[in-house]
Amino acid sequence: MTIKNYPWWKDSTVYQIWPASYKDSNGDGIGDIQGIISTLDYLEDLGISVVWLSPHYDSPQDDMGYDISDYESVYHKYGNMDDMNQLIDEVHKRDMKLILDLVINHTSDQHAWFKESKSSLTNPKRDWYIWRKPQYDSKGNRKPPTNWSSIFSGSAWNYDPTTDEYYLCLFAKSQPDLNWENEECRNAIYKSALEFWFKKGIDGFRIDVASMYSKASNSKGKFEDAPIIYPNQEFQPAGELTTNGPRIHEFHKEMFKKITSKYDVMTVGEVGFCSKQEALKYVSHAEKEMNMMFLFNVVCVGYDGDKFDFKGFNLKNFKDAVISQSDFAQGTDAWSTVFIENHDQARSVSRFGNTSTDELWNKSAKLLNMLEISLTGTLYIYQGQEIGMTNLPKNWSIDEYKDIETLNYWAKHKIEHPNDSESDLKLMQNIQITARDHARSPVQWDDSPNGGFTSGKPWMKVNENFTKINVKSQINDSNSILSFYKKSIQLRQLYKKLFIHGDFKILDYENEDLFSFIKSFEDSKSYIVLNFSNKTIPFKPLVDGELELLHTNVDTPEPGVLSPYEGRIYI
Ligand code: TEU
Ligand code: CA
């Protein structure tokens, strides 16, 4: 097959590295590029073919590098350009690929472009960001131009006294949104953020908030207020006006045509939520925009708007989410992704598995892995997922949490609910389920102090369960989650037509305990049955014909029953 209709990235297994918490090589307590290089053999042995590195660029780190002050340089605590060149080489030497994070919806307010833009109304880069005049209420109080709320709490506008105007910042105040309506700005983004790194030989990008560059305005070019969803709040979510906007596909097509199409690279866009029809516009092959996308249906199941007002979910909700994430691509020329963790989500075994005993932790982490390796699309694994890393301990106070999203929300809550220990507790319980911090504690490499992450003082505390959960204790244990992942990845490659490319058909949608489905490709079939409950359940195959057991997370499966969190993959 030619590269055109069968590109390398479809069959890849991608491993996401979040550099601050991955591996520290010099004892300053912060992960770094040399630390990553020292583990490439480990990743190769696991069966990883693509490394995705989360932002390594120069940044004040208000949002852990998603606030970039210079696309063309490396954050000094992670290393320098020589380290990056070496990383690219070392990855390629092992026949793996390296993709980077492309954060181009916004920059840091410390980026030279923003400093210029902010300096005066007439600066040539004024229009590279989104500036608007204040509004005034009847009493003459200055107000932001619209009621839009920031994704990280508060207003999405920040006032700048230099020119008496507000700039748009849909995330942190220090992350001003770039103005994609300005062509000169777009070309500068393409050159600095994309071409610079393509020329160095990287193999693609994970595209941050790829659905948000085009903001909707009315026919007079004016931004309008978002509908009121939370009547007792001043600022309202503006997702309808700021995601999947009127020119978003035009922008992606332009970026692909001008830049990305000139290289043999992959792109995966963080889109979040959109309709099936919209999804196909982003990732259908014929549309020439991006190769694949991350939808959040699975990782946000139970959120229903406000993630810190967690609603919970049942297995049916979970099934719906899994189906919708792959369904849109089936039978089309589009491609999908499979993932259950990333740096913005809590740990999957804590959310969807069962960590109440060591045995259930081990079994349910493997169960989730069996689901993942059976689904169609490119598979993504987040650092530490392969050893079953869990959420942070429940006895950690808010002081151990470091993420801007969590801390802004907490601060807003404390202002709105002063001295209300009951509601503090309720929020804390939700933070323990959904905070991004759970994914951000250091990777647990061994049972030495700080889990072998650093010889110094880690920037964020290591989860105390590192003495039990770590790479070293699992690497030679054939019953470990890590060994299971390795075998799973091999099986997925061996039966790639079924697992990576096959059609998915659910068999037991109504069942509240079991998740069973068929994968098929031409005349081969696989039957997958997963017990997502803590109960022993009578089991009768839902398919005819002879079944050969290919993979399971128990030693000796008993005929006629499935034990708690037992999974089986038959072919
Ligand atoms: O996240 C975009 C995004 O939509 C987030 O709001 C996400 O839904 C949230 O973190 C879930 O709690 C991307 C990055 O992945 C994230 O780390 C950055 O903070 C954000 O963009 C801004 O760059
Ligand atoms: Ca370091």
Automatic annotation (TrEMBL):
- Give residue ranges for domain Glycosyl hydrolase family 13 catalytic: 16-440
Please give the Pfam families that the UniProt record associates with this protein: Alpha-amylase
What keywords tag this UniProt record?
Answer: Glycosidase, Hydrolase, Maltose metabolism
Any idea of its EC number? 3.2.1.20
Q: Which GO terms describe its biological process?
A: maltose catabolic process; sucrose catabolic process
Q: Which CDD domains match?
A: AmyAc_SI_OligoGlu_DGase
- Molecular function terms in GO for this entry? alpha-1,4-glucosidase activity; alpha-amylase activity; glucan 1,4-alpha-maltotriohydrolase activity; oligo-1,6-glucosidase activity; sucrose alpha-glucosidase activity
* Assigned protein family: Belongs to the glycosyl hydrolase 13 family.
The protein depicted here goes by the name Alpha-glucosidase
Q: What species was this sequence derived from?
A: Wickerhamomyces ciferrii (strain ATCC 14091 / BCRC 22168 / CBS 111 / JCM 3599 / NBRC 0793 / NRRL Y-1031 F-60-10)
